[in-house]
C-alpha cells in the first residue's frame, strides 16, 4: 500500500457501464474527486441504446429485476428510483412458447403460477410453493450476509454469521439436479431454470444457489422502467453528476501506467494524471490491452482458460404491423434444450434447434416505435468464439425468423423496415470481451463468490468494478459491485476523503 493520499486526490474511472457509474456515484458522494471516462458517445456500456428512423432499442439488458437492489442503491443517496423514472409492473411478465405447439403465460400473481404448475404435474403447485419459499429465505440470507457484505476473500467466509447457510449444502450441486427434487416435468424445470441465461450459465454448470433467481422472477416480479434500460443509465449518470463526479464521453483510454499516487492514463486526446484508477473495462481487456506486462496479475493463458458466458446473435428489428401473441418478453424453447446448451459449453457450434428470447418494449412503451409499428429485439444465445462471418450470421438469422413464424405464428420477414445486427465480432471489438462473450465470466461454481475476480488488482491503486467481478453478472450486481469498490478505496486510502 502506498502512502496515505491527500483529500484532493483524483480517482479516474475507466468505462461508464453500470459498475462504473455506480462507483462514480458512491465515491463522489463520499467526497472523492471523481473523473469518469467513457470511450463511446453514450454511457451504459453493454446497456446501450440504438435509435433508427423513429425506433429505439435497448442494445443489452432488457429485464428490470431485483427492484429491491435499485431501491437500496438510490436510498444510499437519500433518493428513490421514482425520483428519476417511473416503473410499470409487467402483466403478463412473459410468455413461453414450446416447439411442440404448447405455450404458457406467466403473470405476476403467484396463484396463477401455482395453477399453471398443477396443470402439468400432480403436486407441482405445492412443490413450487416450497421451492419459492426456500428460494426467498436463501435470497435474503445471500443478499444480507454475502452479497451486500462484500465477501470476496476466503477468510471472509469463515464467519459465524454464515452458519445458517451451512445446511444448504445442496445449493452447491447443479441447478438441474436441485430443481428435479421438486418437479419432474421437463417444461416446469425449464420455467425454473431459464433465468440462468441472465447469469450466462446452463442448468448443468451453474450451482443451485442461483435458484434464488426464481424468487426474483416469481416473487419480486418483472418491471419496465420509463425510457427503458437507457432511462436507468441516464438516472445513474444524473445522480453521479449531482454528487460531483465529472463524466466525459468519447474519450478512449489506451494505456494505464504507474501506480497509486502517480497514475498516467494515456488517452486518444492526451495524457491524464490520477492518484487511483477504477477499471469498468473487464479485467482481461484491462490487463492485456491497457496495462504494461509488469503490472498484470495474469497472462493470456489464464484468461483463455476461463469459462465464458454465451455470446449472442442480436437482431434489432423495426417491424410494421401487429406482433400478437408476442408479449413484452417472450421465450421460445425446444422441449429438450440440452442440445443447445451443449452447443454453447461443450461442443461449440451454431445450434440446430436453439432456444431464444424476444423483447417487444413497444407493447408497453409506445414511444419506442412509430405508430403502427413495433420495436422487436431477438436474442439467441450462442457459444463465445464462434466464427460469425456475414454469410453465417445471415443464414442463422433467416433460420431464427423462419422458426419464429412456425412456433408463434408471427412472421416478421416481409414487415421489417429497420434492421441492425450484433454478434460475436461486435461484442469482441466494441467492448473488448474475451471470445466475444455477451455477458462475461459464467457463474460456474469455480467462478462464483471468492473464486470470481476481486475488486482489488495486484497493482497498488488499481481497482475493478462491473460484471466480471464479484458479485457477478447483471445490472443489480453491478450496482453492488460499485458499492464494494468504493468501500475498498475508502478502506485502503482513508486520506483520500480528508
Characterise the protein shown here.
With 498 residues, the chain is an alpha/beta fold. Helices cover 32% and strands 19% of the residues. The strands form five sheets. A seven-stranded mixed β-sheet has the order 7-6-15-16-17-14-18. A five-stranded parallel β-sheet has the order 9-2-1-13-19, covered by helices on one side. A three-stranded antiparallel β-sheet has the order 10-11-12, with no helix packed on it. The chain is globular, with a radius of gyration of 22 Å.
Q: Spans of 5+ residues with little confidence (pLDDT < 50)?
A: none
What is the straight-line distance between the termini? 18 Å
Identify the strand order in the major beta sheet: 7-6-15-16-17-14-18
Assign the structural class, choosing from mainly alpha, mainly beta, alpha/beta, alpha+beta, or little secondary structure: alpha/beta
Q: Calculate Rg over CA atoms.
A: 22 Å
Number of strands: 19
Give the biggest beta sheet: 7 strands, mixed
Shape: globular
So how many helices?
14
Helix content: 25-40%
**Proportion of strand residues:** 15-25%
